[in-house]
Design a protein that fits this description.
The protein is mainly β and about 350 residues long. The protein contains one helix and 25 strands. The protein folds into three domains: about 100 residues, Immunoglobulins (Immunoglobulin-like); about 100 residues, Immunoglobulins (Immunoglobulin-like, Sandwich), CATH 2.60.40; about 100 residues, Immunoglobulin-like (Sandwich).
């Protein structure tokens, strides 16, 4: 009786274990898959010539236990041709061969290639090729930078020299400035260098407003592989006078015997410009242009402001005006306000 009971227990345990064994076999089957590994996803060709076709082979490894299949490869640029091993057995490596034709590109660039696989965890592999195209059209210095001031003729003309740098003769057919107050001309330059050289002259007009300058010279050329050259324009136009502070805020003041402050005026132009007079719209405020001090730069002057006991209590608000001999900035105005306790 005891033997029979033990047999039934063993048989029952075996029956109960069958689903678990089946589940383990099922898990083992589901974990069996290809594993795609892109060994080095980025390759940099460095500097290449405009007519130079270059080739690189990327390695794709299969670390799984099933065959890795590569279905397709798509490039972000029509400048590439891709071929590849479409089946990679477990433990083996395959090759993805990428050929680059850079004729339609310029400067430094990066091209992406997406590879589609049967590895569900890595259904898409992304690889990148980089390169920098050797210069086709040279420009020296290669940028237009202004440091000018309203009312001054200094620093308003910047010149560039342009030529074919890859053995092709180049000629300028047109130039356009994206900055409305920068005029540009071009002419063939006279130099001892071999091949044609072109002189580009960019002139900042007198009516250029104060503030930053940002834009581009768009140069159209007849180079067989590059139609457009872009030359950055940058810089700043200073106003004739810069006032510091820009606002005279006295806050809450107790006049007592009077309160004094000062306004600093800096002239950006190298040319001497006379300060004619100073005035304010606030009653009881005295203002005076001080003589130039030996310790200050030649282009810096000061205005003294004095709040006198004659001012009424309460808030005051107005402007301080400095009149100058500059036709570009005949008046410098600074807000003035506060409260007399």
């Amino acid at each position: 009786m005891k033997v029979a009971c033990r047999m039934w227990i063993v048989l029952l345990a075996a029956v109960l274990a069958l689903p678990l064994m089946a589940q383990e076999r099922s898990d083992d089957k589901s974990s069996s898959r290809p594993i795609a590994v892109l060994v080095a996803p980025v390759y940099d060709f460095g500097e290449i010539e405009y007519d130079e076709e270059v080739v690189h082979e990327f390695e794709i490894r299969n670390d799984g236990d099933r065959t890795l299949e590569l279905f397709d490869a798509r490039s972000s640029c029509g400048c590439t041709v891709v071929d590849f091993d479409d089946r990679i057995e477990p433990g083996s490596s395959g090759r993805m061969r990428v050929k680059l034709n850079p004729r339609s590109l310029e400067g430094a660039f990066a091209v992406g290639v997406t590879v589609f696989t049967n590895d569900q965890a890595n259904a898409q592999l992304n690889l990148t090729i980089k390169a920098e195209l050797a210069q086709r059209v040279a420009v020296q210095p290669g940028y237009v930078r202004y440091a000018a001031a309203r009312g001054s003729s200094n620093g308003r003309v910047v010149e560039q020299l342009l030529w074919g740098a890859d053995g092709h003769e180049v000629a300028i057919t047109s130039i356009e400035s994206t900055v409305p107050f920068v005029d540009v001309t071009f002419a063939e330059a006279t130099t001892d260098a071999e091949g044609a050289r072109w002189l580009v002259r960019a002139t900042l007009r007198d009516d250029a407003p104060a503030g930053p300058i940002r834009g581009v010279l768009v140069v159209t050329v007849d180079h067989p592989f590059q139609e457009v050259v872009r030359i950055p324009i940058l810089g700043f136009v200073d106003d004739v006078f810069t006032a510091t502070p820009k606002v005279l805020d006295f806050g809450l003041v107790d006049l007592g015997d009077g309160v004094e402050s000062s306004l600093r005026l800096k002239r950006s132009s190298l040319e001497e410009i006379e300060l004619i007079s100073v005035e304010t719209t606030v009653a009881g405020v005295e203002v005076e242009i001080l003589p130039a001090a030996e310790s200050d730069p030649v282009r810096v002057r000061y205005v003294r402001i004095r709040l006198t006991p004659a001012m009424k209590r309460g808030s005051f608000e107005g402007v301080l005006r400095v009149r100058t001999a500059s036709p570009d900035m005949p008046v410098v105005e600074v807000p003035l306000f506060g409260t007399v306790s």
